[in-house]
Amino acid sequence: MPGSSALQKGTPACSVKRSQNQVDLFRPPVQPLTRYSSIGASFPLRKANHMTPRQLRRAAERKAQKEARRAANQFASIPSAETEQIENSGTEPGTEHPTISPAQLAANRANAQLSTGPTTATGKAISSLNAVKTALTGRTVLLPSDDAAEYERHIRAYAKELQPLGQRECDLAQSIADIAWRLKRIPGLIMAIFARGRIEFADSFQQHDASLRPGLIEIETSLAYEKQLRNLQLQEGRLARRREKETAELRRLQQERSQREAEDLDTLSKVYLLAKRENKPFDPAQYGSEFSVHDVECYIEGRRAAQSARQTRQQQPEQAKTHHEFEGHSRERAALSRTAESVI
Q1: Domain for residue 101, yes or no?
Q2: Does 269 fall in a domain?
Q3: What span, in angstroms and rounded, lies between the C-alpha atoms of 150 and 156?
Q4: Where in the sequence is the domain holding 212, given as residue range(s)?
Q5: pLDDT, tens digit, for every residue of 149-162?
Q6: How many independent structural domains does the chain possess?
Q7: In a 3-state reduction of DSSP, which class is residue 7?
Q8: Of 178, 278, 313, 315, which has the most beta carbons under 10 Å away?
Q9: How many CB atoms are located within 10 Å of the residue 250 CB?
Q10: Percent helix, percent strand, percent coil in the chain, to nearest 5
Q11: Is residue 235 part of a domain?
């Protein structure tokens, strides 16, 4: 059309095609993202709840701690009379609780005194054994079924054999004897487990041959009580290693003690001989020693006897050599005389 073409020719480009600014006037205003939405300032924009189970658990723990602190603060602000009433009633603060009469409160306190457990030393000793099963660990060594007299004889026999001196050696000897007592209990416990298994599985394996049933019952017992048997084996190995370690330590302490005693006696013997030569009194206590004069004299006599025995052993080979040489000369003289006689 001519008019339209003229309009297109005569109309400037800015009137046909809007500029970028004019286009923005026709668009709805875009509000920037802020912390609050455009609907109202009371609804903040939050992220989606993608909390892990651990975060949820920690949040619940923090909430519980906060409530506990709030309850503690509220309970601390209650007067003392009301606090005592709450403690006696056993209810939480802020909740309704029934009032308790003085008679009921006195009865509750009297009943509480009846359930305090054993009070005598005998009762406490008995109650302390409630959790004891095998007595292979812990402070308890004797079971109620053990023979106390036999245990005392066992301790005395070890003390006689090991001959400890001093607190440390006595403790080691006592520990070694207790370990030996516990080790003797383990075979009995193992036999008791298999005896129980034979009773428990007595009616089993009826379809098998009679000669095979005892072995099958033992196998079944081993499988059923595998944990108990393995525990006994572990305890036996642990006790055996501990006994070896403590026995080696006891021997080391006794060797060191013997060496110190020998050195002390050697020094005291020299002082004793010097004092005796000078006609002076001698008292080992003046030198901080626990040995007596009789001990020092016995040590000197023993040392002299050892020296004489050593000299005797050294002289015996020389005497045997001399006697052998004398016999050799005698045989030579006898041979010469026989030769001379034959010549004549």
Answers
A1: no
A2: no
A3: 10
A4: 148-261
A5: 999 999 999 999 99
A6: 1
A7: helix
A8: 178
A9: 20
A10: 70, 0, 30
A11: yes
